[in-house]
Write a structure and sequence with these properties.
By secondary structure, the protein is mainly alpha-helical. The protein contains three helices and no strands. The protein has one domain: Up-down Bundle (Chorismate Mutase Domain, subunit A), CATH 1.20.59.10. The longest helix is centred in the first third of the chain and has 36 residues, at 3-38.
Length: 89
């Protein structure tokens, strides 16, 4: 597979990621409203830990090495950080 083909595939994946992140953000905002209504804290460390464990399990099943898994974990931490900001709005 050449560079143009690889880049086309990445563009397709990026579009899918953007759509999924859009869906996630909509749900995060709904969760934020419900947490406010219930008087709950925005950040739930236990839930974040579970999400990261799930992500690590999924990526490990994809044959990724530890550095690649750490990179995805870091990306997910940023996603959750931004989600917490949106929940606070």
């Amino acid at each position: 597979m050449g560079l143009p083909d690889s880049r086309d595939k990445i563009d397709d994946i990026d579009a899918k990621i953007a759509l999924l992140l859009s869906e996630r953000i909509k749900l995060v905002k709904e969760i934020g409203i419900e947490k406010k209504r219930l008087g709950m804290a925005v950040v739930d460390a236990d839930r974040e830990h579970i999400v990261l464990q799930n992500i690590e399990g999924t990526t490990r099943n994809q044959g990724l090495n530890q550095a690649e898994i750490r990179a995805i974990r870091s990306i997910y931490k940023k996603i959750m950080e931004e989600a917490a900001k949106l929940e606070s709005e």
